[in-house]
């Protein structure tokens, strides 16, 4: 391509870049602001979907002109999916033009343009075909349509092409791989010779039989019967536990016994999970029992403790008023400040209305003053150094890797590898962006986090003697003596089918459309791959309880895996006596226990925060750590303030006019110091749209009550809150209305909404409003969703409040990790349990 760059519509000397894609697509979205793909409150929400759509288009050899041609001939529809696809065609075209204008290509471009070059230039195609006498491709089931087409062009007229593939191991559909390529190959080359490789040199007989019974249930597979050449061995084991915690602890105990008895070396053992999010429990269980492990290729790089430490340094250098980052840094061995004392200083700063940094600079504690001195020195250097050079200065001068405490040599290797990877990522950012200042990099990092983009944990050398923790996808092509496959329950393995979100229109797909059972078939192949990674021994595990209160059903895959020869194990037999000799590998930031007086009052916000995550409640309301302003929260507050001021100014015989409402809106914006100036213009326009719609619909009449505070007694506790508005209708009934700026929910979803329950209790027991209706008014659409809360539901809400109060009084603040919630949490840098 570099030799014939002009033919491929790209310039000579181009540089392939994958990391620039996110930023380039973000710029296109901000420029175009398509109605179905860009939301001013959540501007980065669909970047991940768009990137996957662009990748899929290129993997299907769909060029921007072809996608745009489809969009131009497809009429606007009531279906938001079709309208979003039409907008995506324009985004794709401009995104591609920007990449080419910057002399950049992403990974899939290299295949797309190569195919275009070979198709459009017969002379180039002929010369390339002469370069290769034979072409052989391994793992052909993992190729996509574009790669398959490239191989056909490279093979040339002599067709000396050999592909090796196993449809039973096609597990990368999410990357664009197509199991249909094997069938397509037979159609393109009907005279190809088929050689069946049915002798297995890896797995013992019982493992191969279990895997064979499982995969035989796929009716569309190419038939083959594997034969074990290594003879018989241990039967497959199935371990059953009561809970997810017991399952993880039992697996850790089983692994430790296998190592202690000399049956397997640590590096010969792998725990293979269906999803990255499930790795955490097993990592902690291995830590507790003192078994060395490494996470291989797992997602969650930015949630690793050492990466959090490094980013806390950078964020504190850029903004020394970030209390969460300062709290994390104070816990480092370099400063070694007692967390109890640090918590007291943080509360003092908040109570006095001062910056935490200024309080730290005044205290006598040497560690605190040492930190403030470091940050002042680095802040001065940040004015003249790029973020790449600044990062190296911070790591060198703080001696982070020298002073950090490690439980053993493997953890030291992992921490060092992750810090080095962060340095490489920062250097990569500087290579691709003209602005190397720290603030610009942190803005880029915020956008990356908002788009739910993440990096894999840095890999370690294969010779490290530690148990492997990885997903099944990451284990493809590897082998281990002992393989443990957890979470074999319905909903986890096989996982529930999820919507792919924004997808390529079916009319543009080059391959045959997948059958309805594609998801289950791929889940079955994934389980087959997991089993066949094992040489000597396989243990499948499951529990009766995971998240929620339901009993989880065993996976349908267990029946064929068990056959009539599986060995049954009970977790309880492995957990007695209790585990001891614990080792905590990851350093955690422990804050002091609650030394505040017993609570007698709560706000609804406090109750809601506790229900979302008790650990978040502790950080916010017990330790009173400040939170960062967020555009969505500020936007909602501005709209509420504008509505309050405008509705409060209505006189009895004078209706609200647009000039009055807009003046209140402008004044509300003027009072707010907005945290994201680049988003302010689009949000200002959006807010005007919301308010104009509500006014034109006649929904902004004078209310009976406005921003009405209340104090409700619940089981000896005082619960306080504020109602946006109360209307009294001509028939004498009352309506409580709460304004929302988010997406509308259905009435059936709101039956268990606690906020409406609290409003109903207050309206009936404090204000004696009867009859009463409860409504959410969604400003985004102008929809008013009204809900009736029966008495039994109100009693459930009352009991929920009581349960929350009991949990707070008992100092029960367990974390509730959730990837979506943790990604937007103000305390994720501080919390040791943040979801990866």
Description:
- There is one protein chain.
- This protein has 32 helices and 19 strands.
- Helix 16 (about 365-380) runs antiparallel to helix 17 (about 385-400), helix 25 (about 605-610) packs across helix 26 (about 615-620) and helix 30 packs across helix 31 (about 790-810).
- It has 5 domains: about 5-115; about 120-190, no CATH class; about 205-300 and about 460-495 and about 515-585, 3-Layer(aba) Sandwich (Rossmann fold); about 300-450, PCRA, domain 4; about 630-810, Lambda Exonuclease, Chain A, CATH 3.90.320.10.
- By secondary structure, the chain is an alpha/beta fold.
- Strand 18 and strand 19 (about 785) form a beta hairpin.
- The strands form 5 sheets. It has a 7-stranded parallel β-sheet, with helices on both faces. Strands 14, 15, 16, 17, 18 and 19 form a 6-stranded mixed β-sheet that branches. A two-stranded parallel sheet has the order 1-2.
Topology readout:
Layout: E1 15-16, H1 20-32, H2 47-59, H3 64-73, H4 80-101, E2 104-105, H5 107-120, H6 122-131, E3 135-137, H7 145-155, E4 161-163, H8 180-188, E5 199-200, H9 205-215, E6 227-228, E7 237-243, H10 244-260, E8 269-273, H11 279-289, E9 293-295, H12 305-318, H13 323-330, H14 339-352, H15 356-362, H16 366-382, H17 387-398, H18 400-403, H19 409-432, H20 438-450, E10 467-471, H21 472-475, E11 480-485, H22 518-531, E12 534-545, H23 558-562, E13 567-570, H24 571-574, E14 601-603, H25 604-612, H26 614-622, H27 631-648, H28 658-671, H29 680-696, E15 705-714, E16 717-728, E17 734-740, H30 754-765, E18 772-778, E19 783-787, H31 791-809, H32 819-823
Parallel strand pairs: 1-2, 3-4, 5-6, 7-12, 7-13, 8-10, 8-11, 9-10, 11-12, 14-16, 17-18
Antiparallel strand pairs: 15-16, 16-17, 18-19
Helix pairs in contact: 1-2, 1-4, 3-4, 5-6, 5-7, 9-22, 10-11, 12-13, 12-16, 14-15, 15-16, 16-17, 17-19, 25-26, 27-28, 27-29, 28-29, 30-31
